[in-house]
Amino acid sequence: MNTTFPEKFLWGGALAANQVEGAWQEDGKGISTSDMLPEGIFGEPVKSREGISSIKDVAIDFYHRYPEDISLFAEMGFTCLRVSIAWTRIFPMGDENEPNEAGLAWYDKLFDELRAHNIQPLVTLSHYEMPWGLVENYGGWGNRKVITFFERYARTVFTRYQHKVKLWLTFNEINMSLHAPLTGVGLQKGCSKAEVYQAIHHQLVASGLAVKACHEIIPDAKIGNMLLGGLMYPLTCKPEDVFATLQDNRQWQFFGDVQCRGRYPGYMQRYFRENDIALNITEEDNAALSHTVDFISFSYYMTGCVTADSELVEKLKGNILDMVPNPHLESSEWGWQIDPIGLRTLLNVLWDRYQKPLFIVENGLGAQDKPDANGEINDDYRISYLNDHLVQVQEAIQDGVDVMGYTSWGPIDIISASKAEVTKRYGFIYVDLAQDGSGTLNRSRKKSFYWYQKVIATRGGALQR
Questions:
Q1: 3-class SS at 426?
Q2: What pLDDT, on a 0 to 100 scale, did the predictor assign at position 324?
Q3: Rounded to whole angstroms, how far apart are CA atoms 176 and 16?
Q4: N or C terminus: which one in the chain shows less Cβ crowding within 10 Å?
Q5: How many H-runs (helices) and E-runs (strands) does the chain carry?
Q6: In this structure, are residues 32 and 88 in contact, taking their beta carbons and an 8 Å threshold?
Q7: What would the DSSP string read from start to end of 18-53?
Q8: Mean pLDDT, residues 319-344
Q9: What is the pLDDT of residue 321?
């Protein structure tokens, strides 16, 4: 068996603007939904940022330190870096007619720096943030007008960076809107299921219009969607558990079905009927949905189980998405179950379902890395986690799955999205930063840095099977 990855396979890491950049009000940047959630996406939004600080305000100061960080990524051998553009740097309130030049100019510098190191940018248009002005003044994605504002934003950055960026994503983990509607679609607490799905519909329409715009403005570019790969298993082989699992997986597959096939699947139409959800869908909406993505990207961290026994669900559920744990798997410090074979399964499921190229744009292990007496971090647990997952990616490629690349989350320590924690570290590069904001922000290489460097240099040949 060939144990090396294809020559064109892209290797790298993934970042999000609101988790690394800092400079939250610099160069004309507006306030985003992320800024109004100083304690993370599962916290409560503040009424005003006056007198309130967040660790995300400075984060790891990527806004000023990006040349140093990109140099370290290049040292590891990255051929791709996934980043996001902060929408509020380009349109601070979201509804302006003209973009903020200072924001556009900063991303020019970022993409130029990547090109100088032969690292291809993979750019997410909206990664867990949107202008707060669109939430306050329009009601977020619940308002159809936001589609127009997003299309203007997308066309602006496509036009500006058409010669610098050839790989794009629309919305990060678009299915997370079902779990965190303020972050996903800008809807406040207490919104109904019907309101959430109408806002999601507007976002899916906007995604289709972004695909159309990308194809028009940058004909040689590829644009994909981005799913939270929430693969679920039946807890038992009882037919009820198996069917409940099918239904559960469809909650996230639905987003991929619309973005890859250009229409709503029958099972969702039934769901809407039975839950008294009557979406306002126009002929123009259907035309926009017909513009389907070129490839599918997704995050993968864990799997979970499903049972039709509601009492058992209440008794067993755990971790951030309240999934029923798998009794056959171990868990990370944060209760996320570790399942490398699940990644191979998910790759095959998505390939069989859509027959479109796949890109693993998030996968990693959050842990409390602590320097030893010599200041070194021997994160063998991370090496083991990533090794075992990459072995399964290679297995999927041998299965015939078309995999474009792998960008680990996040290649340098960042601020976590869920609870704005810096103690939950993912990186190959350690950042000297404590939860109270103290620290030098100095960067240092962990043991996994050299391991990933060798894996990339050997195109996966150094992986342990």
A1: coil
A2: 87
A3: 15
A4: N
A5: 15, 12
A6: yes
A7: HHH---TTGGG---BTTTT-TT-TTSPPPS--TT--
A8: 85
A9: 59
Cα distance between residue 1 and residue 291, in whole Å: 38
Question: Tokens 């068996």 label which residue?
Answer: 1
**Helix or strand holding residue 211 (H, E):** helix 193-217
In whole angstroms, what separates CA 27 from the centre of its chain? Answer: 25
DSSP state of 91: S
Residue 249, number of CB atoms within 10 A of its CB:
16
Tell me: pLDDT of 454 over 80. Answer: yes
Distance CA 1, CA 21 (A): 42
Q: Containing H/E element for 431? A: strand 429-431
Segment 426-440 mean pLDDT: 96
Closest CA to 360 of 331, 393, 384: 393
- Phi/psi for 386 (5° steps) reads -70, -40
The average confidence (pLDDT) of the chain is 95
The pLDDT-based confidence of 320 (bands split at 50, 70, 90) is low
Cα–Cα nearest to 165, from 63, 72, 85, 78:
85
- The pLDDT value recorded for residue 2 is 66
Domains of the chain, with CATH numbers? 10-457 (3.20.20.80)
Q: Looking at 113, 129, 173, 362, which residue is catalytic? A: 362
Q: So what's the pLDDT on residue 317?
A: 64
Catalytic site includes residue 362: yes
- Contact between 408 and 449 (Cβ < 8 Å): no
State how far the alpha carbon of 405 is from the alpha carbons of 7, 216, 259, 421, in Å. 10, 25, 20, 28
- Give the single-character DSSP code of 425: B
Q: How far separated are the first and last CA of the chain, in Å rounded? A: 12
Residue matched to tokens 């744990």: 325
* Residue pointed to by tokens 């989350």: 409
What does 229-283 look like in DSSP terms, one character per residue? ---EEESSS-HHHHHHHHHHHHHHHHHHHHHHHSS--HHHHHHHHHTT------H
Rounded mean pLDDT of 64-92? 98
CA R_g for the chain: 21
Q: What does each C-alpha distance from 51 to 20, 23, 56, 88 come to in angstroms?
A: 22, 17, 15, 21
435-439-440 Cα angle (round to 5):
145
Share of the chain above pLDDT 70, in %: 98
